[in-house]
C-alpha cells in the first residue's frame, strides 16, 4: 500500500509503540543511575528479583561494585562505569535517576562537581528519556525545603534555602534538577516523577559518610562516644531503605501522578532521642558527646506523606528499632572485615 493511501494509524512509524526485538515479554529494560550506591543497590535488587533487565550507570564516586556483586553473573544485568555528566546512549523503558552524592561530607567534597551532577547529569538523563520515551524518576530530597518554616513539610511548600551556603550545591542542585524535569515535561512531553526523599537508612550505607545514623551505629559498635552535633534538639524522621525502595517503585509505576511526592517516615525524633535508641538497640555501654553544629543545619524535618498514601498507596512499615537492628548486623560484619572506606 503506498504510504499516502495507508490507514491513518500506519502512516507514522513510531518505534516507541513497538515491542523491541530483544526484550523479555512483560519485563522492562530499566536504567538505574547511581545504582552502586546505598539506595540504588537495594532498588536494583528489587528490580532484578522482579525479572527486569537492569543497566546500572555509576561513577563509583561514593558507590561500590561490591554492593552489586550478586548480579554480575546475571545476563539480565549490566554495569557501566560512567559519570552522568557525560551523555549516555542506551535503549530503556524506565530511568531511575539517583546518581548524586547524598551525604553532606560527600557532596561538599567537590561542590562544583555536585552541581554539575545535578544539572548536567539530570539534563543528559532527561535527554535520554526524551529520545527513548522512557518514564523518568528522579530522587530529589527533603533538602529542597531547606530550613523549613512550616512543619511537617507538604509538597506545596516552596522551601527556605540559602542559595550561597555550604549545603547549596546539593539543595539548589536538586531544586534546579526538579525545574529541569518540569521543563522537559512541559516542552518535550517527558513523563516524569519526582520523589522527595527524607532521611533514609539501612544496610550498605557508607560507614564513614558522616550521616547521623551511620555515625551513631558505627560508633556504638566500636564502643566510641556518639557525636551529637549542636544541642541535639534538632529533629529528623528516618525511613528504612526497603520502605523507601517500595515507595520509589510505586511512584514510578503509578499512572498520572502530578507533582513531587514526599517519601519518608513521618515518625520524628530529636537527634538526642536517636542517640538513646541506638544505645538501647546496639550498645548501651557508650556515652554521648556534644560537638559543633555544621552551617545551615535544618532544625526540624518531618514529611507530610498524605500524598504518597493517597496517590501511590504507600506507607512505611519498618519501625526505627527494627531497622536499626538490621543495619547493625550489616555494620558489624563490615567493620569486622575492615570495610571502613567509602
Ligand atoms: P549514595 O552516595 O550511596 O549513592 C549515590 C550513587 O551515585 C553512588 O553510587 C555514586 O557513586 C553515584 N554517583 C554520584 N555522582 C555521580 C555521577 N556524577 N555520575 C555517576 N554516578 C554518580 O547515596 P544514596 O543515599 O544512595 O542516595 C541516592 C539518591 O537519593 C541521591 O540522588 C540522593 O540525593 C537521594 N537522597 C538520599 C537520601 C538519603 O537519606 N539517603 C535523602 C534524600 C535524597
Ligand atoms: N542525551 C543523552 N542520551 C540520549 C539523548 C540525549 O545523553 O540518548 C543528552 C545529550 O547530551 C543532549 C542532552 O541529553 O545534549 C539533552 O538532550 P536534548 O535532546 O534535549 O538536547 P539536544 O540534543 O537538543 O542538545
Ligand atoms: N548529626 C549529629 N551527629 C553526627 C552526624 C549528624 O548530631 O555524627 C546531626 C546533624 O547535625 C543533623 C542531623 O544529625 O542535624 C542529620 O544529619 P545527616 O547528615 O544525617 O543528614 P541531613 O542533615 O542531611 O538531614
How would you portray this structure in words?
- It is built from nine helices and 13 strands.
- The strands form four sheets. Strands 3-2-1-4-5-6-11 form a seven-stranded parallel sheet, with helices on both faces. The protein has a two-stranded parallel sheet with strand order 7-10.
- Helix content is 35%, strand content 16%.
- The chain starts with 28 loop residues before the first strand and ends in a 6-residue tail after the last helix.
- It has helices spanning 38-49, 104-109, 111-132, 168-188, 212-221, 241-253, 271-281, 306-312, 320-336, and strands at residues 29-33, 53-58, 77-81, 94-97, 135-141, 192-197, 200-201, 226-229, 235-237, 239-240, 261-263, 268-270, 288-291.
- Helix 1 crosses helix 6 (241-253), helix 3 runs parallel beside helix 4 and helix 5 (212-221) packs parallel to helix 7.
- The longest helix has 22 residues, at 111-132.
- The chain has 342 residues and is of the alpha/beta class.
- Bound molecules: nicotinamide-adenine-dinucleotide and uridine-5'-diphosphate (2 copies).
- Residues 34, 36-40, 58-63, 83-85, 98-102, 106, 117, 121, 139, 141, 197, 199-200 line the site of nicotinamide-adenine-dinucleotide.
- The site of one uridine-5'-diphosphate has 15 residues, from helix 5 and strand 8.
Amino acid at each position: 500500500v503506498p504510504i499516502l493511501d495507508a490507514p491513518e494509524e500506519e502512516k507514522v512509524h513510531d518505534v516507541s509503540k513497538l515491542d523491541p526485538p530483544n526484550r523479555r515479554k512483560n519485563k522492562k529494560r530499566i536504567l538505574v543511575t547511581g545504582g552502586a550506591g546505598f539506595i540504588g543497590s537495594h532498588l536494583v535488587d528489587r528490580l532484578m528479583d522482579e525479572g527486569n533487565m537492569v543497566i546500572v550507570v555509576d561513577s563509583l564516586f561514593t558507590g561500590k561494585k561490591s554492593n552489586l556483586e550478586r548480579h554480575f553473573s546475571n545476563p539480565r544485568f549490566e554495569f557501566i562505569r560512567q559519570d552522568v555528566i557525560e551523555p549516555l546512549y542506551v535503549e530503556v523503558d524506565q530511568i531511575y535517576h539517583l546518581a548524586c552524592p547524598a551525604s553532606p561530607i560527600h557532596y561538599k567534597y567537590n561542590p562544583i562537581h555536585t552541581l554539575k551532577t545535578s544539572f548536567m547529569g539530570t539534563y543528559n538523563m532527561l535527554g535520554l528519556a526524551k529520545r527513548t520515551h522512557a518514564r523518568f524518576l528522579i530522587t530529589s530530597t527533603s533538602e529542597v525545603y531547606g530550613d523549613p518554616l512550616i512543619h511537617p513539610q507538604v509538597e506545596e511548600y516552596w522551601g527556605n534555602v540559602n542559595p550561597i551556603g555550604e549545603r547549596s550545591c546539593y539543595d539548589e542542585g536538586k531544586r534546579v534538577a526538579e525545574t529541569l524535569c518540569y521543563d522537559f515535561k512541559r516542552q518535550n512531553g517527558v513523563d516524569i516523577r519526582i520523589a522527595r526523599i527524607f532521611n533514609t537508612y539501612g544496610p550498605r550505607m557508607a560507614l564513614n559518610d558522616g550521616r547521623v545514623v551511620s555515625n551513631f551505629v558505627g560508633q556504638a559498635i566500636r564502643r566510641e562516644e556518639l557525636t551529637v552535633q549542636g544541642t541535639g534538639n534538632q529533629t529528623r524522621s528516618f525511613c528504612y531503605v526497603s520502605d523507601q525502595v517500595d515507595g520509589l517503585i510505586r511512584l514510578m509505576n503509578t499512572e498520572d501522578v502530578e507533582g513531587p511526592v514526599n517519601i519518608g517516615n513521618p515518625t520524628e525524633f530529636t537527634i538526642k532521642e536517636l542517640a538513646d535508641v541506638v544505645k538501647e538497640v546496639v550498645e548501651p555501654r557508650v556515652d554521648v558527646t556534644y560537638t559543633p553544629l555544621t552551617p545551615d543545619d535544618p532544625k526540624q524535618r518531618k514529611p507530610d506523606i498524605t500524598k504518597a498514601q493517597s496517590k501511590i498507596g504507600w506507607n512505611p512499615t519498618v519501625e526505627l528499632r527494627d531497622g536499626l537492628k538490621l543495619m547493625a548486623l550489616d555494620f558489624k560484619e563490615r567493620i569486622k572485615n575492615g570495610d571502613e572506606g567509602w
